[in-house]
Design a protein that fits this description.
This protein has 110 residues and is mainly alpha-helical. The protein contains five helices and no strands. It is 73% helix and 0% strand. α1 crosses α2 and α2 packs across α3.
Amino acid sequence: MPQTRSADELVNRVTDDPTLINEVKADPVNALKKVANQVVRELPPALTGDVWIYRIVVSVLGLVVLAAIVGAILLGYQWITIPETLTALGSAAVGALAGLLAPSPTQQSH
C-alpha cells in the first residue's frame, strides 16, 4: 500500500474542488495554508499501524544504554579510562529514547 504524502493530498484536494481552485487563484497563500492545515490534521501520524518497528527501536536503544552503563562500570572497576565512544553511544541512545518516549508537542489533547 503506497504511503499518502501530505503534499500529494494537498494537490489532490485543490485540483478536485473548483471552489478551492478559485480561492487559490484569489489568495494563494491563505488558501493553501488553510488546506495544508486541514490535510495535516486529517492524515494519520507516521507508524501508527506498525508498532513492532517502534518496539524494536526502543528495545535496541535500551540495550545500547544498558551496554554502555555496564561497560562503563566494568571499565571503571578495572581502573581503565572509559572511552569517549562508549560515553557518546550511551548519551545518544538516552537522548533518542527520550525523544521517542516523550509526547509530541503537536499532539492535541481532546
